[in-house]
């Protein structure tokens, strides 16, 4: 069966050729447009020819006379006057303090011996003879007496311990740090407390106030004040 259209009349047959011819023409026209040059017509007169020569002014030269520089001042050297001699001063002879054969030696009875400088208060861990708790006098060594002191302190606290009712109702617990001083007569004084609540501190102070009279601590045979610290723990079951 033959096609109805004539293949010689098909427009798409030479479309690629037409495209390249069109592109060539467009590029040629763009090149001519970019390379096209125009020139202004030459003027018939020159601007520089209209300048009047009489308008040129001559610069006036002004001469300014500068002042002369100041002359340096010449300082006159000070006049030296010779003072008269001062009055004669007698020189004092400093005698030597070195001992010689003529120096008298003081007698032994005349020499004053200074007293021992013993502090008024010595901590428990540094004192020579620590305070003695009643019932610990028979301990032989100082170490045993210290251990007995601490043991009796714990027994005293457990024996007299009473948990404050208000602290139980409020659910208060904690540790109260207690510091007290064994006086030179064996009594207890200067009680200092620090705890989580006032009710617990009051109970700790009551327990310490019930301590019996102790044997005071001694340093070189002299009774001195001895501070001692111990914690008291309050804990609900």
From TrEMBL:
Name of one Pfam family that matches: TonB_C
A GO term, aspect molecular function: energy transducer activity
Keyword annotations: Cell inner membrane, Cell membrane, Membrane, Protein transport, Transmembrane, Transmembrane helix, Transport
Gene3D superfamilies on file: 3.30.1150.10
Record has Transmembrane helix as a keyword: yes
InterPro entries attached to this UniProt entry: TonB (IPR003538), TonB-dependent_transducer (IPR051045), TonB/TolA_C (IPR006260), TonB_C (IPR037682)
GO cellular component terms listed in the entry, alphabetical order: outer membrane-bounded periplasmic space; plasma membrane protein complex
Membrane topology: Single-pass membrane protein
Segments passing through the bilayer: 16-34
Main location per the UniProt record: membrane
GO biological-process terms attached to the record: protein transport; siderophore transport; transmembrane transport
Localization: Cell inner membrane
TonB C-terminal domain location: 148-237
UniProt entry tagged with the keyword Phosphoprotein: no
Family the UniProt entry places it in: Belongs to the TonB family.
Name of the featured protein: Energy transducer TonB
Lineage of producing organism: Bacteria, Pseudomonadati, Bacteroidota, Flavobacteriia, Flavobacteriales
């Amino acid at each position: 069966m033959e096609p109805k259209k004539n293949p010689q009349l098909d427009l798409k047959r030479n479309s690629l050729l037409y495209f390249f011819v069109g592109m060539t023409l467009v590029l040629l026209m763009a090149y001519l447009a970019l390379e096209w040059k125009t020139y202004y017509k030459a003027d018939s007169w020159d601007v520089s020819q209209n300048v009047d020569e009489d308008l040129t002014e001559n610069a006036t030269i002004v001469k300014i006379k500068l002042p002369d520089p100041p002359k340096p001042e010449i300082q006159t050297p000070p006049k030296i006057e010779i003072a008269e001699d001062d009055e004669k001063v007698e020189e004092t002879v400093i005698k030597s303090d070195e001992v010689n054969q003529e120096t008298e030696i003081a007698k032994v009875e005349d020499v004053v011996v200074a007293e021992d400088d013993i502090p008024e208060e010595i901590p428990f861990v540094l004192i020579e003879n620590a305070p003695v708790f009643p019932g610990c006098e028979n301990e032989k060594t100082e170490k045993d007496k210290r251990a007995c002191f601490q043991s009796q302190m714990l027994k005293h606290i457990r024996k007299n311990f009473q948990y404050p009712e208000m602290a139980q109702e409020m659910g208060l617990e904690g540790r109260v740090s207690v510091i007290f001083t064994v006086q030179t007569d064996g009594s207890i004084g200067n009680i200092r407390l620090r705890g989580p609540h006032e009710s617990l501190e009051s109970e700790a102070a009551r327990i310490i106030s019930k301590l019996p009279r102790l044997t005071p601590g001694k340093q070189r045979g002299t009774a001195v004040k001895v501070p001692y610290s111990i914690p008291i723990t309050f804990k609900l079951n």
